Amino acid sequence: MQPFQEAIVKKLKEEYHTELGKATTKQLYNAVSKAALETCWDTWQKPVTGKTACYLSAEFLVGRLIHSNLLNLGLLGETENLLKDAGINPNVFEDVEDDALGNGGLGRLAACFLDSAATQGVPLMGYGIRYRYGLFKQHFAYGCQQEEADDWLSWGDPWSVRRDDEKVRINFGDQSVWAVPYDMPIIGYGGKMVNTLRLWQAEAIAPFDFNLFNEQKYNDSVQQKNDAEAISAVLYPNDDTDAGKRLRLKQQYFFSSASLQTIFAAYTAKNGTDYSKFADTYAVQLNDTHPTVSIPELLRLLMTQGHLEFEPAFQIVQKTFAYTNHTIMAEALEKWSLSLFQSVLPEVYPYVVLLQNRLSNELVKKNIAETSKYNLIQDGMIHMARMAIYATHSTNGVAKIHTEIIKNSALPEWYALYPERFNNKTNGVTQRRWLALCNRELAAFITDRIGNGWITDFAQLEKLKPYAEDAASRKQFLQIKRTKKDQLADYMYRKDNFGLNTGNIFDIQVKRLHEYKRQLLNAFSILDIYFGIKDGRIKEFNPTTFIFGAKAAPGYYRAKGIIKFINEVANLVNYDNDVNRKMQVIFVSNYNVSYAEKLIPAADLSEQISTAGTEASGTSNMKFMMNGALTLGTYDGANIEIVQNAGEENNYIFGARVEDLEKIKDSYDPKKLYAEQPRIKRVMDTLIDGTLTDGGTGWFQELYNSILEGASWHKPDNYYLLLDFLPYCDARLQANKDYADQDAFAKKCLLNIAAAGPFTSDRTIQQYAEEIWHV
Ligand code: OAK
């Protein structure tokens, strides 16, 4: 046995009094994880020298850690061999639930960044919240989403180390709590660097009141404990929108203050009260506006504990912080009511006023009289994005088009004021998880041809380009795709009890459910194909499985209606013997990181169909690309950069562009399209003519109205589904037709993989490190 294998056996014996053949999955998981953690403990504990970057984020969607950590430590093979030799399925850990401490794109990006930084030797610390319950688990009842708590701790938490000695006190207007850190190792590939993700847990200062207990006031006796623990109890399930709730503001201040207090104390312990080097010691990146209250918090620390005047404190703050914007959706630009902010954070509010005063002076000096779009405090609200732009040295978007939209249409007044602050950092994803780990067959295929340097230097993928011309490589690629479809079929059968037709084209849209992402457009187009096949309008059609995966925010009425609609479309299609040899529609339940790791490698077509100008970047588009799926998408977010690099001719781009929408937005009339295009009318009418049923809820009628009539808060068809409908159907049918020549299709796939080099988060992190953090 290898030393690591022995260490696992020893752990099982010492911690659980058991052995390999007898241990439960949970025991195995904990023993392997703890043994692995010990192998990198010393590296982890080495103090960081030089400047440290800190990534503050309300979400870190790390996904299951055991496989990625073993891969990065070079221990995956040994572990799997040990399991196999003991007669244990090496996939046992697939039953271990994900820790889902994030909603979607923003949280998963944070996790990719941590992996990339540790791999490239960038000292990057993550700071966030240790939610007791992560994103809800989803299942369907009669096609409707039902939510259930995500009790991720039931599997144990072997990758975290509780640090009682580093807890800090957090003061709100109406309560004080402890923030207790749980540290997780972030192991770089090769194990040379181990960074830290520190997640804060809220706990009561005095967990129990004995006097109240003696008076038999049992609920009151634990009131303080419950109120404290509520702060880190649950992840808000809203993606891209903000609820504006008191507890949410408490969460934000809770982890922001805990993180800044720690950073501030560490600096002071090392350098005393000379704060002139603070911004050369720490760079702090704000992952969207959720941690923006860190700005007045650092001002407060510098001025009260550091005894600085406001102006020098402001200079340090501005040099330290940088801000990333992840959406231009108006409803996601965070605002807090002044009265709420003052009551929750009375000690912080004065520093917001100081910031506002400084801004006001500056606007006067610059002769800007119209200040309503700049004021941090305006009409009884505090505008967090404005604060984040004003008090930092860098504001970045996450794809080229997104950054341009920020500068020219979302926040042009700020761009006019500080053009030098705005910059782009196109997102990326880690190829360790999203290729090496989730698609080992394709990884081996690539390594066989160009060596394994791509694992840490993704630009090397370019060397794969000549193999697109190689018939044997194309054939082998297609075989791998088929293997991944078969593996997905097994997994899906276990999770959802669906039987997949693995000979079909796999056309996949997986992402949070949102109107702007247009899952409804996808469903409409599926119905159009369905009717087309039934009516004989579509004669040749390569059998296709259409797969959806998406969670809707529990309070998002329309999104839930769209889920129900797609499930009804699935029933219609799958039970219709006229078409179900040609098409299959599937909505997987509880789509999450682990499901994504199975779905993405099996895809032929990657659905990226958001309305132009709405998806800031998208990151699944990159994961699909590196797994050899072709993008069927709009000119939006990072799709643009993807197809520019891989060749538009090797992907399927359709629909109105931002410039087109700009021109027609005032005259757009979806009713006209509905009246003039029978195919549009036909699919729209399924919402109201009884073809499909919403169970008497009124959901479908409301969706129908939202498109043709609009609503009090938006114009009809504000995401232009009907405008893009026919071009989308055309592009989709073209892709379907092209698939008939599988060899030619495989060539396009290989060209996409070979062009995926820029979309690694290693590149993104390098750019943040060089251009923003200077580490
Ligand atoms: C979530 C909450 C508030 C604001 C933004 C988000 C979010 O997840 N945005 C997403 O961020 C991803 C990473 O940058 C992008 O790829 C997505 O396009 C964007 O919607």
UniProtKB/TrEMBL annotation:
Protein EC: 2.4.1.1
Chief subcellular location: cytoplasm
Localisation: Cytoplasm
Listed GO biological process terms: glycogen catabolic process
Cellular component aspect of the GO annotation: cytoplasm
Enzyme class: transferase
Pfam families per UniProt: Phosphorylase
Catalytic reaction(s) noted: [(1->4)-alpha-D-glucosyl](n) + phosphate = [(1->4)-alpha-D-glucosyl](n-1) + alpha-D-glucose 1-phosphate
Gene3D superfamilies, per the entry: Glycogen Phosphorylase B
Modified residues (N6-(pyridoxal phosphate)lysine): 623
Keyword annotations of the record: Allosteric enzyme, Carbohydrate metabolism, Cytoplasm, Glycosyltransferase, Pyridoxal phosphate, Transferase
Example GO molecular function: glycogen phosphorylase activity
Cofactor: pyridoxal 5'-phosphate
Function: Phosphorylase is an important allosteric enzyme in carbohydrate metabolism. Enzymes from different sources differ in their regulatory mechanisms and in their natural substrates. However, all known phosphorylases share catalytic and structural properties. Allosteric enzyme that catalyzes the rate-limiting step in glycogen catabolism, the phosphorolytic cleavage of glycogen to produce glucose-1-phosphate, and plays a central role in maintaining cellular and organismal glucose homeostasis.
PANTHER family given in the database record: GLYCOGEN PHOSPHORYLASE, GLYCOGEN PHOSPHORYLASE, LIVER FORM
Family of the protein in this entry: Belongs to the glycogen phosphorylase family.
Name recorded for this polypeptide: Alpha-1,4 glucan phosphorylase
Phylogenetic lineage: Bacteria, Bacillati, Bacillota, Clostridia, Eubacteriales
